[in-house]
Design goal:
This protein is mostly helical. It contains 10 helices and 3 strands. Strand 1, helix 9 and strand 2 form a beta-alpha-beta unit. The mean pLDDT is 85.
Length: 246
């Protein structure tokens, strides 16, 4: 109830103060089909509750079956433990708050454009569940449960090491390229067709480490200007050291 009152006051006292047309401009009923949202919810829950890897490979592949499979099995184990070992009032409150947060995050997608549900959005709501889950596991397995935390940190370190890029060398190459084109100290634009294309975004991010005065452009006509760079223009004159594990 307090949360509902806060939302109403936030809308009338804050949002309307800056933009009275916010609701009409940004809310749109039926933004995504249910079939798509349910699939994203399932995959998001599986990565969120995978204790070792919280992100799937965007390119797909057999490794994703393992990532989703471990997460799904862990969810089933959670449900079993919460049913088998009765929850205290405090534990029930933790689980209830988490489920409400996840459900609200799902339904808001029907009329508000947000990123697909994944670990980044679920992390705050999954945290109380993890607390209760590990408490139940600790009551059964005692200190052996710490092995899960250790393996989780180990897998994170392994993937971080595997996905490392030669950042300093790439930045050095980019600096030389911009200086040779006299573009290191002037306002730049970087042309994109779609912000979802990570390879293009990575080039723009690399440019910004040398010349932070850069903005994104989505107008093809801007590419005729010398100060508007594209991925093709950049890679014609320099090579970026890529890592297949990124």
């Amino acid at each position: 109830m307090i949360g509902g009152i806060f939302v109403v006051l936030y809308k009338f006292l804050f949002i309307d103060y800056f933009n009275e047309n916010y609701v009409n401009e940004f809310l749109e009923i039926g933004l995504h089909p249910t079939s798509k949202l349910l699939k994203e919810l399932f995959l998001g829950l599986c990565t969120t509750f995978n204790p070792f890897i919280h992100i799937a490979n965007p390119a797909g592949g057999i490794i994703n079956y393992a990532i989703y499979g471990i997460g799904f099995f862990n969810i089933l184990l959670m449900i079993y433990l919460f049913v088998r070992y009765k929850l205290s009032d405090t534990e029930f409150f933790f689980i209830f708050v988490s489920i409400v947060g996840i459900v609200c995050s799902y339904f808001i997608q029907y009329f508000y454009s947000v990123n697909p549900i994944d670990y980044r959005l679920m992390a705050p709501f999954s945290f109380p569940v993890w607390l209760v889950y590990f408490r139940k596991l600790f009551l059964i397995f005692n200190v052996k449960v710490y092995a899960i935390g250790f393996l989780s940190l180990l897998s994170g370190l392994a993937f971080t090491w595997l996905s490392k890029g030669n950042y300093l060398e790439n930045r050095k190459e980019m600096k030389q390229f911009l200086q040779s084109e006299n573009l290191d100290k002037v306002p730049l634009q970087f042309y994109l067709e779609d912000t979802e294309d990570l390879e293009y975004i990575q080039v723009a991010e690399l440019i910004s480490t040398v010349n932070p005065n850069i903005t994104l452009s989505f107008k093809p006509k801007d590419t005729l200007q010398k100060t508007t760079l594209t991925r093709y223009k950049v890679l014609q004159k320099m090579k970026i050291d890529k890592n297949k594990y990124q």
